[in-house]
Amino acid sequence: MAEPQKLIKPVKTSQNHQGLHRELLTNQKSYHSFWSMNKSELQKVMEKRQLDQVIKQKEEEAQKKKSDLKIELLKWQQKLEQLELEKQKLQEEQENAPEFVKVKRNLRRTGQEVAQAQES
Predict the structure, then answer these.
(1) What is the pLDDT of residue 95?
(2) PANTHER family this protein is in (predicted)?
(3) How many Å apart are CA 7 and CA 38, to the nearest integer?
(4) How far apart, in whole angstroms, are the C-alpha atoms of residue 16 and residue 14?
(5) For residue range 37-62, what is the model confidence (pLDDT) as tens digits?
(6) Residue 111 included in any domain
(7) How far apart are alpha carbons 69 and 14 in whole angstroms?
(8) Under a CB-based contact definition with an 8 Å cutoff, are residues 17 and 11 in contact?
(9) What is the band of 33 on the pLDDT scale with cuts at 50, 70, 90?
(10) Residue 72: in which H helix or E strand, if any?
(11) Is 60 within the bounds of a domain?
(12) How far apart, in Å, are the Cα atoms of 66 and each of 63, 77, 118?
């Protein structure tokens, strides 16, 4: 099968468009070089610092403005962490409990298992 031919774009092939594009590119290059030549090194450094500060401020603002989804995820994460802490505390309490309390718990558990087995 023959491949379809690319469409010719009359705007891009016109001499006027190409000339205008070339002129814009050269003007842009000369504009940047003109402004960079006339500035002292101190001015260049100060402008760069100001630009860096603006960028940093925008990044901080973006971090502060968290989406609703992020807020909900953070809440869920905090709840999970609290549940884990409570679980660890219970385990520590059970481990640190006196021996007679552990035996009593085991007897209850086995008693419940026996009662369930008899019902089945």
Answers:
(1) 80
(2) DOWN REGULATED IN RENAL CARCINOMA 1/TU3A, PROTEIN FAM107B
(3) 46
(4) 5
(5) 667 888 888 999 999 999 999 988 87
(6) yes
(7) 51
(8) yes
(9) low
(10) helix 68-96
(11) no
(12) 6, 15, 57
pTM of the model: 0.33
User: In which domain, by residue range, is 81 found?
Assistant: 68-120
Handedness of CA 89, 90, 93, 95 (dihedral sign): negative
Q: Is residue 73 part of a domain?
A: yes
Do 30 and 36 touch, CB atoms closer than 8 A? no
Q: How far is CA 103 from the centre of its chain?
A: 50
89 within domain boundaries: yes
- Which uninterrupted H or E stretch holds 25? helix 15-38
Whether the predicted pLDDT of 70 surpasses 90? no
Cβ-based neighbours of 12, under 8 Å, separated by 6 or more: 18
Distance CA 120, CA 110 (A): 15
Tens digits of per-residue pLDDT, 71-112?
A: 888 899 999 999 999 999 988 888 887 888 878 888 888 888
Other C-beta atoms closer than 10 Å to the C-beta of 17 total: 13
Nearest one of 22, 26, 1 to 12, comparing CA atoms: 22
Mean pLDDT of the chain: 84
Determine the Cα–Cα distance for residues 18 and 15; give it in Å rounded to an integer: 5
